[in-house]
Amino acid sequence: MQKLDKKQIEELLPHREPMLLIDELYNIKKLFSATAIVNVRKDSFFVQGHFPDNPVMPGVLIVESFGQAAAALTAHGLDKSTYEDKLVFLMGVEKARFRNPVIPDCKLELNIEAIRSHGKVWKYKGEAFVEDKKMADAIWSATIVDKK
Fold first, then answer.
1. In terms of pTM, does the model score above 0.90?
2. How many alpha carbons fall within 13 Å on the CB side of residue 122?
3. Distance between CA atoms of 36 and 64, rounded to whole angstroms?
4. 14 phi-psi bin (left φ>0, alpha ψ -120 to 50, beta other)
5. 104 phi and psi, to 5 degrees?
6. Which of 95, 98, 123 is nearest to 108 (CA)?
7. Interstrand relation of 24-29 and 33-40 (parallel, antiparallel or unpaired)
8. Is 15 a catalytic residue?
9. Cα-flanking dihedrals φ and ψ of residue 8, to 5°?
10. What is the pLDDT of residues 95-141, one digit of tens each?
11. For the segment 26-35, what is each residue's pLDDT rounded down to a tens digit?
12. Which of 15, 50, 76, 118 is catalytic?
């Protein structure tokens, strides 16, 4: 089973702390699907203000985590020369549902799948779980662009 740790993910994505949200990518099926792990901690940057005394991972950061996982899956699967000097940008979110709050001190598992690609535009879907309980799901699009 192929697995990428945080350092390997940093080689694929431009994101850095505190905005690099995914900690691991595994169950990788080249350019098709993967599972990402987001370790949601009590000291995560958003906890202090969202919400004091009742911390919850913001839905927008769950969507961002989906996007980062998809970008890592795509970057990892493409030939290095094809992806060199490129970035994956989120284009749109067709649907996102937040079913249960994600509370710190958990391992958020993101199961993502590339639904289709057309040139530099990709469409993905994903589901987020904590201990087999569905927390969120989404469908989104991204594009590969040149770094400036």
1. yes
2. 25
3. 12
4. alpha
5. -55, 160
6. 98
7. antiparallel
8. no
9. -70, -35
10. 999 999 999 999 999 999 999 999 899 999 999 999 999 999 999 99
11. 999 999 999 9
12. 50
